[in-house]
Amino acid sequence: MSSRLTENETKISFLIKDIEDLSDIVARQSRELEQLTKQVSFLTQKETERDTSSGIVLGDKPPHW
């Protein structure tokens, strides 16, 4: 009985450690995802500004056509 209890306590300790590690990973990935989302938004905005300021419509044919 005592050995089973000790074995279960050991397993629980490892599971708690795994949960803490996974929680840290999820938190880090959440921060990274937020940063990447901001970067994509920034780059999208820059590309939109570049497209509107260039004055070239993508559907237009070049002058030599």
- How far the N terminus sits from the C terminus, by CA atoms, comes to 89 Å
**Which assembly state applies to the chains in this document?**
single chain
Number of strands: 0
How many alpha or pi helices? 1
Structural class: mainly alpha
Largest sheet: none
Which outline best applies? rod-shaped
Q: Number of domains in the coordinates? A: 1
Low-confidence stretches: none
Secondary-structure element order, as H and E? Answer: H
> What does the radius of gyration come to?
27 Å
Helix content: over 70%
Mean pLDDT reading: 91
Strand percentage: under 5%
Describe the structure.
It is a single chain. This protein has 65 residues and is mainly alpha-helical. It has one helix at residues 2-54. The chain has one domain. The N and C termini lie far apart (89 Å).
List keywords for this structure.
65 residues, mainly alpha
Helices and strands, with pairings:
Elements: H1 2-54
